[in-house]
């Protein structure tokens, strides 16, 4: 199984003195909260240290649930950009406020029922309505009739695809490919499967924004500009 991304469990100073100060800043309500925290710290083994650790843990869990989530890269399907053992931070808010994945984004998605019962990381090459073809007369990927130069991220020595395909992407879905085309199971391989190889936008967990480990690989994962000149489906330029 070409499992592309694996979830990983996650391991104020006072202002300057001046003429304006907040007197009795806690007030009755604040003092009540402070007393409650003090009692909780007294009750917990380890006191305030344990309480602080618990608060930090809750913060990290909330961050992972709603904002960012780390994933490990276990395969070479997204090399050269994402290598085996890299840990990436996925922005779970990237598509939660009206925005949708765009061509060139690297996304992590739940492949259950489409690719396999796992999470995967791939590059978006087609969005709803796009006509994706490979390959043109000189061996390039075409989207909506426009050839795409993928040399900036395609794995050295790989062609855009050794398998020809011609697909129209249904609305609300994505056509995705790995950057290491010779070692990636992606939309090309699932055209005859349930869902036709397309990934529902609703199955996208988020956008891979940062490589954070190992230290030598730390970098910002940016959207490729290779698709910038691709016209929108229907002929309008996007």
Quick structural gist:
The chain has 238 residues and is of the alpha+beta class.
- Whole-number total of structural domains: 2
Q: Helices and strands: which structural class? A: alpha+beta
Using the CA coordinates, give the radius of gyration.
Answer: 24 Å
The N- to C-terminal Cα distance equals 35 Å
CATH topology of the largest domain, anyone?
Umud Fragment, subunit A
CATH architecture of the largest domain: Ribbon
**What proportion strand?**
15-25%
Report the principal-axis shape. Answer: globular
Low confidence ranges: 7-27, 53-65
Write down the secondary-structure element order: EHHEEEEEEEEEEEE
CATH class of the largest domain: Mainly Beta
Give the biggest beta sheet: 9 strands, antiparallel
Count of individual helical segments: 2
CATH superfamily placement of the largest domain: Umud Fragment, subunit A
Tell me what you see in this structure.
The chain is of the alpha+beta class and 238 residues long. The chain folds into 2 domains: 28-66, no CATH class; 69-227, Umud Fragment, subunit A, CATH 2.10.109.10. The protein has 2 helices and 13 strands. The chain has helices at residues 27-43, 48-66, and strands at 6-7, 68-72, 87-91, 106-110, 119-126, 131-134, 141-143, 146-148, 165-168, 173-177, 199-200, 204-213, 219-220. Strands 1, 2, 3, 4, 5, 10, 11, 12 and 13 form a 9-stranded antiparallel β-sheet that branches. Strands 8-7-6-9 form a 4-stranded antiparallel β-sheet, with no helix packed on it. A hairpin with a 2-residue loop joins strand 7 and strand 8 (146-148). Helix 1 crosses helix 2. The longest helix is centred in the first third of the chain and has 19 residues, at 48-66. Residues 7-27 and 53-65 have low confidence and may be disordered.
């Amino acid at each position: 199984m070409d499992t592309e991304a694996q979830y990983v469990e996650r391991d104020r100073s006072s202002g300057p003195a001046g003429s304006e100060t907040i007197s009795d800043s806690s007030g009755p309500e604040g003092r009540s909260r402070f007393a409650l925290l003090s009692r909780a710290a007294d009750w917990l083994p380890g006191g305030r240290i344990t309480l602080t650790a618990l608060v930090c843990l809750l913060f990290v869990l909330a961050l992972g649930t709603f904002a960012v989530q780390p994933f490990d890269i276990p395969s070479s399907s997204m090399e050269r950009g994402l290598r085996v053992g890299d840990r990436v931070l996925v922005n779970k808010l990237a598509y939660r406020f009206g925005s949708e994945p765009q061509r060139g984004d690297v996304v992590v998605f739940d492949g259950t029922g489409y690719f396999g019962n796992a999470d995967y990381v791939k590059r978006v090459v087609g969005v709803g309505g796009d006509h994706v073809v490979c390959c043109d007369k000189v061996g390039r990927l075409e989207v909506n009739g426009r050839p795409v130069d993928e040399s900036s991220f395609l794995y050295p020595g790989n062609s855009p695809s050794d398998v020809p395909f011609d697909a129209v992407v249904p609305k609300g879905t994505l056509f995705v490919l790995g950057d290491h085309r010779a070692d990636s199971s992606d939309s090309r391989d699932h055209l005859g499967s349930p869902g036709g190889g397309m990934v529902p936008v609703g199955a996208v967990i988020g956008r891979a924004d940062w490589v954070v480990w190992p230290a030598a690989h730390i970098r910002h994962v940016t959207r490729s500009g290779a698709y910038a000149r691709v016209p929108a489906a229907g002929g309008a330029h996007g």
